[in-house]
Every structure is written in C-alpha cells, then in structure tokens.
Amino acid sequence: MSQKDEFHNVDDASDGLFRELASGVTTRIFSGEQAMLSVVTLAPHAQGTLHHHPEEQWGVLLDGSAIRVQGDEEIPVKKGDFWRTPGNVPHTMRAGPDGARVLDIFSPPRPEYRKAGSGFGTT
C-alpha cells in the first residue's frame, strides 16, 4: 500500500467510507488499526439517535453549532469545542440552524463502522 493512501482531507466529500446515520446525518469513516475517525455532517436542526457503544469517543465541532446530548445533560457546543464520551454513555447531537460538522475519534475502532451501511449501530 502506498503511503499516499494514508493521507485524507476533511473537506473531500468523496473520501472515506460513506454511512447514513439518520435523516440529515451522514458520515465518512476512516479506520486504522487502533483508532477510527468519522467526519459527521448534520443538516440544519438534524438530530442523531440516542445511542451508546463500548468504544471511547472524542468529538470536535469543526463547523456550525449544536447541542451535545450526553448522559442526561444537553450541552451547547460551538466551533472549536471538543469533548470526550466514555464507553457506554448514551449520547447524540442536535445541529443548530446552520447545521454542524463534527470530527469523531473512536478507540478502538467500531466494528459496525468498518463497512458501508446505515444507522448508529448499538442503541
């Protein structure tokens, strides 16, 4: 494998493994051996499904605004904010009026995200 295959661009909509998570919520997934990145795009006011999984997850709000639902709290986030979600903590995201784009980082990689499909997996 060429080293060029290991380089990606967060703004290249054709790069990565595409997955539709919910209505108005899509992602492009990049999987490694020990970690996985997911570039999630949320349409204005779109919301994911409350779900949980055993993998630890970090998120960074790249663009827009949103409400991060984590456990029993709703926390407003703005561009540049980042957060950690421990494994098995219920969570989702609700985009603001201009939508949102989030970089999620999972460790270890989520097995259900290694293939194209739809949905969040574990709920």
TrEMBL record:
The cross-references to InterPro entries, in alphabetical order and at most eight, read: Bacilysin_H2HPP_isomerase, Cupin_2, RmlC-like_jellyroll, RmlC_Cupin_sf
User: Signal peptide: which range, if any?
Assistant: none
User: Which SUPFAM superfamilies does this entry report, sorted A to Z?
Assistant: RmlC-like cupins (SSF51182)
Q: Where is the Cupin type-2 domain?
A: 39-106
In which domain of life is the source organism classified?
Bacteria
**Chain spans, region Disordered:** 78-123
Q: Name one Pfam family in it.
A: Cupin_2
PANTHER family this protein is in?
H2HPP ISOMERASE
Q: What is this protein called?
A: Cupin domain-containing protein
This protein's species is: Bradyrhizobium diversitatis
